[in-house]
Amino acid sequence: MNNLIDIMQLSTEEIAELIDRAEDIIANPKKYSEACHGKKLATLFFEPSTRTRLSFEAAMYELGGNVLGFSEAKSSSAAKGESVSDTVRTVGCYADIIAMRHPKEGAPLVASRSAGVPVINAGDGGHNHPTQTLTDLLTIRREKGRLDNMTVGICGDLKFGRTVHSLMCAMSRYPGVKFVLISPEELVVPRYLITDVLEPAGVEYEEVRSLEDVMPQLDILYMTRVQRERFFNEADYLRLKDTYILTPEKLETAKKDLTILHPLPRVNEISVAVDDDPRACYFKQVLNGKYIRMALILKLLEVEV
Asked: How many whole angstroms separate alpha carbon 1 and alpha carbon 94?
């Protein structure tokens, strides 16, 4: 594997290998502290980010490497009209590996064909976010001890949520996984995920409007924000943004071992009163993101420790 553009490039065996390596990094950080000495990661973020960009940078620093890059398109030559291909071909002369976020679907794939070094998709529009999915899978396995035989509720913006799309694709390959898809009518999951991913794999799913009605059956609750930046109409965003707000009261019927996840940033879809609930794992998710990105960088750079 030379690049990671789509989570489906990884087999379940390769995902397990990355999770195992991340677990070893967590247990033995000193062993990896100089693994990427002399290597450089370029972070090319054409769209705003906090967690993803900083976790990539923290991951490379903790591997003993260095980081260069930019955090917004207007601070790069893209503001002058330079193509993605030319940008990454240039950056590939300076760096050993590239993490790229772009508002246009498919941009990291285009970049991977020109870069000359490994490219990691750090999110492309409403399409895909494979390293967030690896983060989610590491968190689920650390919390549950498995990735199969569970009911996964995904709530909020299922239409534009790239983290949702990647997670559904990845988990559809594990036996005994059922999805409960909770959204308003206007933000239902794209049909291709049903017809091309879930149904061919024989994955059980149901689409519902009420979070409270399905709460008792969930093993995982994956909350998402309604994304203002994906809407063409401000009125539609304002009408839908508060559709689902998770509160301690709504968790009263939930399983005692429910795992609550959120890719963050949170706006108001999870009350801060939920943060102290032991089932809330979204800040653990943030930390796990650094470790799984460390494992991925090692794999793509073919570094043996």
From this structure: 21
Sign of the torsion formed by the C-alpha atoms of 270, 275, 278 and 281: positive
Identify which of 142, 192, 144, 201 has the alpha carbon closest to the alpha carbon of residue 171: 201
Q: Which residue out of 53, 101, 142, 293 is catalytically annotated?
A: 101
Assigned token pair, 299: 């794999």
Query: What is the mean pLDDT of the segment spanning 162-190?
Result: 93
Q: What is the pTM of this model?
A: 0.91
Contacts of residue 88, Cβ cutoff 8 Å, sequence gap at least 6:
44, 98, 100, 111, 114, 115, 119
Cα of 235 vs its chain's centroid, Å: 28
| 234-256 pLDDT tens trace | 665 565 556 688 999 999 999 99
* Catalytic one of 12, 39, 51, 230: 51
User: pLDDT digits over 55-66, tens only?
Assistant: 999 999 999 999
Identify whether 129 is a catalytic site residue. Answer: yes
Is 80 annotated in the active site? yes
- The yes-or-no answer on residue 51 being catalytic is yes
Structure tokens at 181: 């898809």
Catalytic residue, from 21, 40, 43, 52: name it: 52
Which 3 state secondary structure label does DSSP give 177? strand
Residue 262: active-site member: no
